[in-house]
Specification:
Layout (H helix, E strand, L loop, with lengths): L4 E10 L2 E11 L4 E5 L6 H8 L7 E6 L2 E2 L5 H8 L2 E4 L11 H12 L4 H14 L15 H13 L5 E5 L7 H18 L2 E6 L2 H6 L3 E6 L2 E7 H5 L4 H8 L14 H12 L27 H12 L6 H9 L3 H7 L69
The structure holds adenosine-5'-diphosphate and magnesium ion (MG).
Length: 400
């Protein structure tokens, strides 16, 4: 199982420029999370801070008991080996062919023989659909292939945590869909903890178990996908719908006068930029048929059901509807028990219900894995509630 990453009060600035402050969240082991945020909100800086390439001003990032912010150089070097990172541009060495690029971390960090290295490199190239492209130079292949080569290289040290910086940037929607499927398939195969930072709405809606959002130098929210997908938090709603109407503006944020003017124009029928209203919980991407089921999905169900009562009604409804009838019985819940919840404009529960800009949704609970003793049959996707809608080839075939 992948490692848990506990981030507490992480704060970063460059000189006088604050990037984000007090970011607190936990990446649950073996689950896939997405961090959304408009361009320039510090998503790349966040990833680099998580692996100690940048030094945050304060806060913690703890992996396997080691705080990456405070630990010694030696510990940092050791702990970094747990991470596989896919940088935005693939970050390949232009003068090395794909084989040597992918072999690089093994030659650098291990004492493996060339025979062992060959076996690993070919396996990772096959996993990422690059078999046969070993001798190509990065400049000779497409952007999608470069991304997959970067991913193959991120995989060679068997990472427990995989960080992907905008894996979709520069790719067309079809190649993005293949890459999303590849990440889910990888997760099914190696059960690594995955964090994807992106501003791609479709990736955010269909890929992760958990979603977070950075905006105005803060973590607006972080929690189970159902919470953000049904959220009426204006920033989250605007972003997930790709609309101009809302707090996010051309540069970063806008004032209330401009918001009112834009709302007036939209009310008068002027197109607000979105193509459809996509509020609601859409089915999540499933591993390609034939691959193992994702262990993270099972663990997440147990975890989320424990904190269900703390979530807004629309999110509760979305979660319950995604369970199979057998699971609903096991957890003692029924769909429509929260009738009308989906249309509630505000969370009705009190206490631990998330508030605007809380940024601390279920952070205390998110990583607590209940010992529910699950060993029942594999959950079967239900028609229309999370079934495998996405037809795709096995890993290693087709794609960009
Ligand atoms: N090494 C650095 N030194 C100074 N400022 C930086 C550095 N790296 C990033 N920044 C600034 O941090 C902000 C966030 O950048 P970035 O993380 O790249 O945003 P995103 O990935 O969300 O688009 C930007 O204003 C950028 O100019
Ligand atoms: Mg970036």
């Amino acid at each position: 199982m992948g490692a848990e990453v506990v981030i507490e009060g992480l704060t970063k600035s460059f000189g006088k420029q604050a990037i984000w402050r007090d970011v607190t969240l936990t990446l649950p082991p073996g689950e896939v999370s997405v961090m959304l945020g408009p361009s320039g909100t510090g998503k790349s800086v966040f990833l680099k801070s998580m692996i100690g390439l940048l030094k945050p001003d304060r806060g913690k990032c703890v992996v396997n008991g080691v705080d990456i912010v405070q630990c010694s150089e030696h510990k940092l070097y050791e702990t970094r080996k747990l991470f596989g990172v896919l940088f935005q541009d693939g970050a390949l060495f232009g003068s090395m062919n794909l084989y040597d690029n992918v072999a690089f971390p093994l030659r650098e960090h291990t004492k493996k023989s060339e025979t062992e290295i060959r076996k690993i490199v070919l396996e990772k190239l096959e996993m990422t659909g690059l078999k046969g492209a070993e001798t190509k130079l990065p400049g000779e292949i497409s952007g999608g292939m470069r991304k997959r080569a970067g991913l193959a290289r991120a995989l060679v040290l068997d990472p427990e945590i995989i960080l992907c910086d905008e894996p979709d940037s520069g790719l067309d929607p079809v190649r993005t869909a293949y890459l999303s499927q590849l990440l889910i398939d990888l997760n099914a195969q190696i059960d690594a903890t995955i964090l994807i930072v992106t501003h791609n709405i479709n990736v955010a809606r269909t890929v992760p178990d958990n979603i977070g959002m950075l905006f105005r130098k803060e973590l607006v929210m972080f929690g189970p996908r159902e919470v953000l997908l049904t959220s009426d938090e204006p920033v989250v709603e605007q972003f997930l719908n790709g609309r101009r109407i809302g707090p996010i503006g051309m540069s970063e944020e806008k004032d209330s006068a401009q918001m009112a003017m834009e709302q007036e124009m939209a009310d008068a029928g002027h197109h607000d930029g979105s193509t459809e209203d996509v509020r609601g919980v859409v089915p999540q991407l499933q591993p390609t048929p034939g691959l193992p089921e994702r262990q993270g999905v099972r663990r997440r169900k147990d975890r989320v059901m424990k904190i269900l009562h703390t979530l807004p009604p629309a999110a509760q409804e979305g979660i319950i509807e995604s369970l199979t009838p057998e699971e609903q019985r096991r957890y003692g819940v029924q769909p429509h028990a929260y009738a009308g919840a989906q249309h509630a404009t505000r969370p009705v529960a009190s206490g631990s219900t998330p508030s605007r800009h809380s940024g601390e949704l279920p952070t205390e609970n998110i990583a607590q894995l209940p010992d529910s003793g699950w060993n029942g049959p594999a959950p079967r996707p239900q028609p229309g509630t999370g079934g495998p809608r996405h037809q795709s080839p096995r890993p290693g075939q087709g794609g960009a």
